[in-house]
Amino acid sequence: MLRHPRDWQSLLYMLALPALVAWQWRYGFAWPLYGLELFLTLGIGVVHHNHAHLKMWRSRWPNRATDMWLTLLQGHPGFVFHATHNANHHRYHHGPQDAARTYRFGGDHNHLAGYLLHPLQATWALYPLFGCWLGRLRRRAPGAFGYCLLQYLLVGGLWLGLALLDWQKWLLLVLLPQLHGLHWLLATNYLQHAHADGHSKINFARNFEGALNPLLFNIGLHTAHHRHGRAHWSTLPALHAQVRHQVHPRLNCGGLLPYMFTTFILSLLLPRYQSQPLMRPTETA
Length: 285
Fold this sequence. Notes:
Blueprint: H1 8-27, H2 31-53, H3 60-74, H4 80-92, H5 112-140, H6 142-165, H7 167-193, E1 207-208, H8 222-227, H9 236-243, E2 252-253, H10 256-269
Parallel strand pairs: 1-2
Helix pairs in contact: 1-2, 2-3, 2-7, 3-6, 5-6, 5-7, 6-7
């Protein structure tokens, strides 16, 4: 049984994404369907993230099956969230010990190049954590270690099988959308934390309150999510309302897309729209 009835939305995304891939594989590429597929890769990344924080089902085996299905959909094992996200990012809240803090890479900035490069920089920084975590797991819990390796084998097997069927369709309909979703999932860290205060107990994250939030499982309400990591995503609007007045006004934004246009594009022409840091330069080491 589902832990929360609102997770019908998660299940819908998990079924719609492979259906769109299968339809285009069979009947041909279509831009409207491909655009929807790319959007769903964003949603699947959030579903995977949410499932790592709070399992979707009340019993073990449906959760195991969901682990594997999300791994195949995203093209990356879900267990990495535990090593690099839950045990790092949610532990240190963008602070100086957070391995993927945005100001670690070239200083405290908030611009388009930083947004585009952050996923590559964060991956380079996070994989050593992930490797150490796997090493400890292999020594302490060989069964769990084997479960993690199985997720990698499933992804590799799916990719190989689809590439052998038709490598061009696999590249266009599977691999590129998955890479798009993974890039966005990591780049979201930049959107939510660049120019926030990594030393603050409340001003470490940016919140997006626009219309996309319900479609992306309220991931924009990031302060509330950090403070209540195991809260179900459907409860985040109420939790956000409780802390909104404590957050610096510059960190409570409207829609995600207007913010990105203003911060990354319009600011190039009109300097008054440039993002301003909340940390002092001496705090960004």
